[in-house]
Amino acid sequence: MKDGEGSLGRDYKDGDIIFEENSIGKEMYIILTGKVKVIKEKGDVETILATLEEGDFFGEMSLFDNNPRSASVKALGNVKLLEINQKNFLKKISRDPSLAFRMLEKMSQRIRKTDEKILNCTVEIKDFIEDHQEFV
Amino acid sequence: MKENSNLELNDGAKIAVLGGGPAGSFFSIFALKLTRQIGKNIDLTIYENKNFSHDGPSSCNMCAGVVSESLVQMLAIEGICLKPPIVQRAIDTYCFQTIGGDVFLNSPSKQRGIATVYRGGGPVNQAASETDKEHVFERKSFDDFLLDCAEKEGAKVENVRIEDIKLNNGRPIIFSKRGQLPDADLVVGACGINSKIIKKFEELGTGYICPSTIKAYQSEIHIGEQNVSDLFGNVVYVFLINQPGVKFAAITPKGSYVTVSMLGKDITRQTVMDFLNHPEVKSKFPDSWKTPDAFCRCVPKINVGAARHPFADRIVMIGDASSARLYKDGIGSAYLTAKAAANTAILYGVGETDFHKYYYPSCRKINRDNIFGKIMFAFTGIINQTPILREALLNASRYEQKHPESGYKCSTILWDTFTGNEPYIDIFLRAFNYKLLLRILVNIFNAIFIRLKKSGDKK
């Protein structure tokens, strides 16, 4: 079989940008195979916010709030992604609201992780300030 | 209807799912996920006598094996991602072949969104060439994959054929050849319409009557992996060639085979041979190719009507045994009915009133939609029988494919009707778009004008 004939979705190569921060997007993506990294870039510094893998989805925030993309997403190695556009997605959710259960579950897990990260950062900053009180 | 709304599934309740096809597996996956989410436990057993990893019709749930784009996406959202070797070929184009020409329609989503799969282990009588024998095409049954997903969620799978079902004091009791099986608080009829047990459900006296059906004819023709790639690629061919007695025929590429699906009245092996020898069909195959004498084939029933009263206290029928979309997307209907039944059983209860109130609306939605499906297919039949209309529709679709900026109005109607991607009612309403009607009208006048000009030139 020729490459890709048996695989659903679209192919991306290592380093391909799937979408950029602040771009306008009307699609969400589900990873069929491979990995992607969610990044924020400031100057030459690239901060990895998350690494997502098979079965994970991303880009869903813009479908709900219609705001520009909050981060960039790049392919880590060869990736196959299934793209779902906003209109189709909302149609599906309106026909079967329980379809959103898994998304809500995943989004809740992400919020928990973010909370944990913020808490860890706050503790680290507090410790840092306490350790360097005399300089402050 | 009995007013018995106290039938709830308690912690540790037992569910017996009769049938391990997509409906049974989907029900199990959703029911088990939901019970975990609400902090409950259920003991769910799927009874399936087929081994889907074996080749041939006896281990297969016999259908064309096309998973619509819409279902592929919904499953991916649910965390069920379809990949090779389950996906035998990913489809992004449909070709509509009529006796007046053809038109290739590309997927509106511009991606390979439709999956072709084997329901069982694959075809038998593999007339594979030497090169194909060296490279055995890897494949995994779609039904087997879903059953694995259900097992991962915590379902038990028992390789048992259910022979009978009876009611004892309002509780269903199921029997295998060896005798009575453990009591269940809920029996889910996911047995499909091709199994014998479905008649036993009718005999229970709950008011259940299985759906009316017609027969489809599926044939698996081996042409070799290279030929499938070169000649069919990622395209499903739909043939509207006015063959007597044939309503609809399609060729679906999969691995090193193509699946020939035919619908109509009294389709026999000879009808399939006549179809394969039709010039429009033969031209799709290699020049040196000869119609094989033997090929793997099956004649499954498919729904053309809906079941009556597909639920009772502690019993619910899902998938084909309840309601299915007309001609298309049977697996999608299995998903919809299974999910609605699982949500009802876990969140509301397993009484007749619960199923009537929370499950049956999903079935009624499919049944109502099929009325529009019948109208759409009747329209297609009329258009196909009328050369001027056929030509106008083909030309309008060809124009849209060449000029995407004009919008895919005609193309998406054909696409959604034949891929089963959207509910028929949506397609039906879209067909009354004035721009589309105007486009077709212009093409009708064009077709008439060209005919008049041709006849004038001849004179």
UniProtKB/TrEMBL annotation, chain A:
GO cellular component: membrane
Subcellular location: Membrane
Domain Cyclic nucleotide-binding residue range list: 12-110
Membrane topology: Multi-pass membrane protein
Matching SUPFAM superfamilies: cAMP-binding domain-like
Xref: PROSITE patterns: CNMP_BINDING_2 (PS00889), CNMP_BINDING_3 (PS50042)
Cross-referenced Pfam families: cNMP_binding
Name of this chain's protein: Transcriptional regulator of Crp/Fnr family protein
From TrEMBL, chain B:
Segments crossing the lipid bilayer: none
Gene3D superfamilies: FAD/NAD(P)-binding domain
InterPro entries given in the database record: FAD/NAD-bd_sf, Geranylgeranyl_reductase
Coiled coil: none
UniProt xrefs under PANTHER family: DEHYDROGENASE (FLAVOPROTEIN)-LIKE PROTEIN (PTHR42685:SF21), GERANYLGERANYL DIPHOSPHATE REDUCTASE (PTHR42685)
Name of this protein: Putative geranylgeranyl reductase
